[in-house]
């Protein structure tokens, strides 16, 4: 019989001694899903000892930092869920570059009241006048205030609805768009919709009417919406739903992007 030599087992490295209280706190925070307290309790413990906080004050501070961080994470989730194509904030809008837009009106849109009342917002103006900036900025403000928001372009939404109808799940798709507190619809009026696409989009407006807020950005004034909705009656019905109790902001015709480019070129001459 041949005996094969074997290597002796590798000795285990001794585990570092863990403070039982730290281990208990760490495990409890994981169980209760308190990541901020788990990450910061040692830091706050040092501060509490230094400032001689009472047990109650220490507990209040722990809960406060957890609540604050949880609120920040919730806002971030809502903003991500809106699917904005790029970050834009109302605070960054250049009112000096576009005097057609007043800070007072934009300031009023930071309140959730109009969105919770299901009132529409219509932004009309030429390309480069800040419509998309304001649309995304308003949507971001509403998301950070705790409302569910969804951003999309008109063409993307119509295509999604058409695909849903072909796949026989149109009802669930419309329901999903009906549930969000604010629907931000960009590039409204840029394309001519066929009769089928126009009717699908009309269903969204009908389901949301006076219950959920819809904000659209369009480069076409109301009088030219018949180029998008070629059926006169359908066009009138859409306009009626989007203008009833709406906030209308006309951003004008002077392109901010063009003016910025021309100014930069002049400086480089």
Write up this protein.
- The protein has 269 residues and is α/β, with parallel strands linked by helices.
- The protein has 2 domains: 21-77, no CATH class; 83-262, P-loop containing nucleotide triphosphate hydrolases (Rossmann fold), CATH 3.40.50.300.
- Helices cover 54% and strands 11% of the residues.
- It is built from 11 helices and 5 strands, in the order αααααβαβααβαβαβα.
- The chain has helices at residues 20-32, 35-51, 55-82, 103-108, 113-116, 131-144, 154-166, 170-179, 195-208, 232-243, 256-268, and strands at residues 121-125, 149-153, 182-188, 213-218, 247-252.
- Strands 2-3-4-1-5 form a 5-stranded parallel sheet.
- Strand 3 (182-188), helix 9 (195-208) and strand 4 (213-218) form a beta-alpha-beta unit.
- Helix 7 packs antiparallel against helix 8 and helix 7 (154-166) packs across helix 9.
- The longest helix is centred in the N-terminal third of the chain and has 28 residues, at 55-82.
- The protein is globular.
Query: How many domains, as an integer?
Result: 2
Overall structural class, as computed from helix and strand content, comes to: alpha/beta
Q: What is the mean predicted local confidence, pLDDT?
A: 88
Q: How would you sum up the major sheet?
A: 5 strands, parallel
List the total number of helices: 11
Q: What is the CATH architecture term of the largest domain?
A: 3-Layer(aba) Sandwich
CATH class of the largest domain: Alpha Beta
Calculate the terminal CA-CA distance, rounded to whole Å: 94 Å
Proportion of residues in helical segments = 40-55%
Strand order of the largest sheet: 2-3-4-1-5
CATH topology of the largest domain: Rossmann fold
* Radius of gyration computed on alpha carbons: 28 Å
How much of the sequence lies in strands comes to: 5-15%
Overall geometry: globular
Count the beta strands.
Answer: 5
């Amino acid at each position: 019989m041949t005996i094969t030599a074997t290597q002796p087992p590798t000795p285990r490295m001794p585990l570092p001694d863990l403070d039982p209280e730290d281990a208990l706190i760490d495990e409890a925070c994981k169980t209760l899903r308190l990541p901020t307290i788990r990450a910061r309790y040692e830091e706050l413990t040092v501060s509490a000892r230094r400032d001689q906080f009472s047990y109650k004050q220490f507990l209040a501070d722990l809960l406060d930092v957890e609540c604050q961080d949880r609120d920040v994470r919730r806002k971030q989730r809502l903003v991500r869920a809106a699917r904005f194509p790029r970050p834009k904030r109302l605070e960054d809008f250049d009112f000096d570059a576009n005097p057609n837009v007043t800070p007072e009106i934009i300031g009023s849109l930071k309140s959730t009241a109009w969105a919770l009342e299901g009132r529409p917002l219509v932004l009309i103006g030429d390309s480069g006048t800040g419509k998309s900036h304001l649309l995304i900025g308003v949507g971001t403000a509403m998301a950070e205030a705790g409302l569910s928001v969804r951003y999309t372009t008109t063409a993307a939404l119509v295509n999604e609805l058409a695909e849903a109808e072909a796949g026989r799940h149109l009802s669930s798709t419309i329901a999903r768009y009906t549930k969000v507190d604010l629907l931000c619809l960009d590039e409204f009026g840029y394309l001519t919709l066929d009769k089928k696409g126009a009717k699908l989009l009309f269903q969204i407006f009908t389901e949301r009417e006076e219950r959920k807020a819809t904000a659209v950005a369009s480069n076409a004034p109301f009088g030219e919406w018949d180029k998008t909705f070629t059926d006169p009656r359908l066009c009138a019905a859409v306009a009626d739903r989007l203008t009833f109790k709406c906030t209308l902001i006309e951003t004008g015709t002077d392109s901010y992007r063009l003016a910025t480019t021309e100014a930069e070129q002049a400086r480089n001459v």
